[in-house]
Amino acid sequence: MTAVPASPDEPAETPPLVPLTVPRDGVPDVVVDERVLLRCAEAVANGSGPVAIDAERASGYRYGQRAYLVQLRRKGAGTWLIDPVAVPDLSPVGEAIGDAEWILHAATQDLVCLAEVGLRPRALFDTELGGRLAGLPRVGLGAMVEHYLGLQLAKEHSAVDWSARPLPEPWLLYAALDVEVLGDLRDAVAADLARQGKSAWAEEEFASLLEFSGPEPRVDPWRRTSGIHKIRTRRGVAVVRELWQLRDRIARQRDTSPGRVLPDAAIAEIALAHQRSESIPRTLSSPDPRLARSIRRNQEALREALADALALPEDELPPLTLPPTGPPPPKAWADRDPVAAARLTRARELLGAVSEELAVPVENLLTPDLLRRFLWEGPAAPTTDEIAEALIGMGARRWQTTVAAPLIAVACSEHPRS
């Protein structure tokens, strides 16, 4: 089916938003024992239709991304709030859901932590991703609920410490309301996608999410430390590595966010000050009071890690940067491969125009990394089918290749290789 763009028309007057403050069934008690969990599973099994699911984590407070509250709602079963710390195995609920569709918002944020407690979908609908395909300029849950349902969700508890116990009543109310609206939102998004001829696109995207198991592990994750770009010596980079790894061990042991143990700025500051040092100072400190407090709390461990970095032989120091594993930055293409640069520029132009026409973000039409990987030193005269199969081999969905492959073929034909 040929997709049509989202309608830009808006009603002359938008009716006032209705604040959503109380769940229709009230705020349920939190499930904290296995007997009640089995009652939850039974209720879910006897319900009908898709199951709205959400999870709350303690990002910025705890180590890792585990779930500290799981919310479910299904027609005929009501809303359930489950404490996965008290009952860490939710597989009975997963079995009760069976083949029923999950409704999530921004599924990749929750799928991993839900799998850790025994919940894995067999079918799903991601309202956030559906909103992107439908052409919405804002796809946060609150914005989409306002757009489609005319309701206003309070979001003041979205970044609280969900590992706190007991959980305050206002937080539980917020959590219950998040799944309260997902069913109606799913239906509204699905109707919009059908109107635009994008239902099949969404189905492909949602099916691909069933295999999602988290982002690929990074090589040398410590290289993402903010401020590392200021370090100019391999010795300084070694200091960053030792301090980052120390911080990670401490954070894991304390079950706290690494940034609460030692901010990135403190790591970078110490490394910058000692990237050419041969001796260890008696004390480490910082002119920034906040950083100084973090350093003082971990003084001895930091000095030991610094000593380890300064004692490393030259041949054991890490490189300043890792060798590239993919295409170079696009700004370097013109000098290194003018044909590839011209193809990339033209393909971006064509994809950008179609993105506007279909009201789909260009990164959803085709991941920019896939476009660069294909075009860098690409075939001399690839056909549309060859491009499509190559992109699928790199992870693109077939609907994406239907849109993007003909445009890439045009870019390649307009800038042939000799």
UniProtKB/TrEMBL annotation:
Database matches in Pfam families: DNA_pol_A_exo1 (PF01612), DNA_pol_A_exoN (PF18305), HRDC (PF00570)
Example GO BP: nucleobase-containing compound metabolic process
Alphabetically ordered keywords of this record: Exonuclease, Hydrolase, Nuclease
Annotated GO MF terms: 3'-5' exonuclease activity; nucleic acid binding; nucleotide binding
Region (Disordered): 1-20
Keyword Ribonucleoprotein included in the entry's annotation: no
Family annotation (InterPro entries): 3'-5'_exonuclease_dom (IPR002562), Exo_C (IPR041605), HRDC-like_sf (IPR010997), HRDC_dom (IPR002121), HRDC_dom_sf (IPR044876), RNase_D-like (IPR051086), RNaseH-like_sf (IPR012337), RNaseH_sf (IPR036397)
Domain HRDC: 233-316
Descriptive protein name: 3'-5' exonuclease
